[in-house]
Amino acid sequence: MENSLPSIPAKRYFTIGEVGELCGVKPHVLRYWEQEFTQLRPIKRRGNRRYYQHHEVLMIRRIRDLLYEQGFTISGARNKMQELAQAQKGLKKDVLENGSLDDELMDDFDEERAPSKDLDVASMAMESAQRASSLQVSSSLPTLRRELMDIRDLLSN
């Protein structure tokens, strides 16, 4: 089902309606998920209008995949997201301390398809964390690949 989701445009902020269309989820579900997943914190402006950033749209797609495609419960998906966050923190710490990235991740990027010079270290670390976590559950690999391809498409635009 995630194959049918539209690509994420190169914008800084997205309204709740736009995110709903991009992720195939209704706005009331997104508001509910904000209560259940503490990592999901859109910026609120006048009149409590929510504005989501690109990384939050990716997070919502991951939550949607865990719940709708992989059959996780809300608490199971919450635990999985916390595991991802822990892995991400560990890799960011590794990058900052050692100044290097996961060799497997770097091998996957070639100059023509995803120019790594345009990626900052933090986003590479995040992708590496997601990849490391996904390697533990082989069913997550196609999802991760699609997300990386979305990122690549954004960078090429």
Structural features:
157 residues, mainly alpha, Multidrug-efflux Transporter Regulator, Chain: A, Domain 2, 3-stranded antiparallel sheet, 7 helices
Structure, explained:
The chain has helices at residues 16-23, 27-36, 54-69, 74-98, 103-108, 121-136, 141-156, and strands at 14-15, 43-45, 49-52. Helix content is 62%, strand content 6%. Helix 4 crosses helix 6 (121-136). A hairpin with a 3-residue loop joins strand 2 (43-45) and strand 3 (49-52). It has a three-stranded antiparallel β-sheet. Mean pLDDT is 78; it is low at 106-121. By secondary structure, the chain is mainly alpha-helical. The protein has one domain: Orthogonal Bundle (Multidrug-efflux Transporter Regulator, Chain: A, Domain 2). The radius of gyration is 16 Å and the shape is globular. The two termini are 25 Å apart. It is built from seven helices and three strands; from the N terminus they run E-H-H-E-E-H-H-H-H-H.
Number of beta-strand segments: 3
Would you tell me the structural class of the helices and strands? mainly alpha
**What count of helical segments does DSSP give?**
7
**Which strand order do you get reading across the main beta sheet?**
1-3-2
CATH class wording: Mainly Alpha
As a percent range, the share of strand residues is: 5-15%
| CA distance, first residue to last residue | 25 Å
Number of domains: 1
CATH-derived architecture: Orthogonal Bundle
Helix content: 55-70%
CATH fold-level assignment: Multidrug-efflux Transporter Regulator, Chain: A, Domain 2
Query: Biggest sheet, in brief?
Result: 3 strands, antiparallel
The shape is: globular
| Radius of gyration, CA atoms, in whole angstroms | 16 Å
Order of helices and strands: EHHEEHHHHH
